[in-house]
Amino acid sequence: MLGYCTNVFPGDTFDSVIKNLEEYVKPLQHALSFDAGIGIWLSANALHDADVTQLKDTLEQCGVQLMTCNGFPAGNFHASRVRHDVYLPNWSMDERLEYTQGLAELCAAVTHRQSFGISTLPLGWNVHEFDFRIATTLILKCIDSLEEIEQKSGVCIHLDIEAEPGCLLQTSAELSQFVNEAFGDDERVRRYLRVCHDTCHAAVMQEPIESCIKHYEDSGLSIGKVQVSSALQCEVSDSNKDSILQGLSQFNEPKFLHQTTVQDDNSMLFYEHLEDALISKATGLWRVHFHVPIHKSSLSFIQTTQDDLLHSINVLKTHDIETWEVETYTWNEMPSTIKRDELVESMAKELHWARDIIYN
Questions:
Q1: Which CATH number fits domain 2-229+305-358: 3.30.70.2740, 3.10.560.10, 3.20.20.140, 3.20.20.150?
Q2: Which of 163, 224, 244, 351 is 20 to 30 A off residue 276, Cα-Cα?
Q3: Mean of pLDDT over the chain
Q4: pTM for the predicted model, two decimal places
Q5: Distance between CA atoms of 110 and 76, rounded to whole angstroms?
């Protein structure tokens, strides 16, 4: 199933979640020529006040199915400055387990699907205090909860780890290595622990889709869902450096981290944030973690990783992917000079583009 993640809409309360469904998702469904699902995002604060009946009724009124859940950001994802806060609590903290268990119970009560993924962070940010032994224990406790939920509801809720640049698990190789070392060849773990493959994140880390799939398969990991997303891309040389970097500087906004890699013939440089890369003025192939509309191959004279996305989709759609989730959560942070559509109109264009590529 193809749908859109609601983390593009601001709102840290359950009332705001309901309002966003009515204000944005309902007109989006009317703008589409096919039935799309949604991947819901609720902060820990919104989850605390969530009402299953109200959520079910609102989804029905909007004519949309709940197909997945984004359990990555537990805090207010649309605070004025998010950056490193999005990686807290991490998976060595009890609060992360409690949040994820709460999401699983809610989604099992709401969804009509028999298999349902909740994406989660790749353990945590790589400089935050972290204990891998505690994380392994908490994830196993989460798996126990998911197994119990399936026994009671018949819904297999799986936890889908999403590798991200700068985190403890940045790549498919690191994710697969962690699962092998922490859980061995435990088949029960692999029923409830899967992968959320984000095409933007893989592109920023310059990972070919073929390598990602091989790492997943070698460690017995299934792909629970694919987040269909594009990054910024440009080739910076001594001759075009000034103009390209000036264009990229429009995306240097304060809310989110925009991890950046620069690949040259010999090595890949990593910068925690775009502003650090801009200061370096490095030459090579730049890729910036800034989710941009997937139907765009360029934004003004800055390119996107759409070609990489197209290739990834064509490879992934031969692997029985159940859930495809478009996730352009930084739409509101894009430069005003580049945005030409209203939010719902842009979302509809992204979904139609994705449908044509995935199902044709």
A1: 3.20.20.150
A2: 163
A3: 97
A4: 0.98
A5: 23
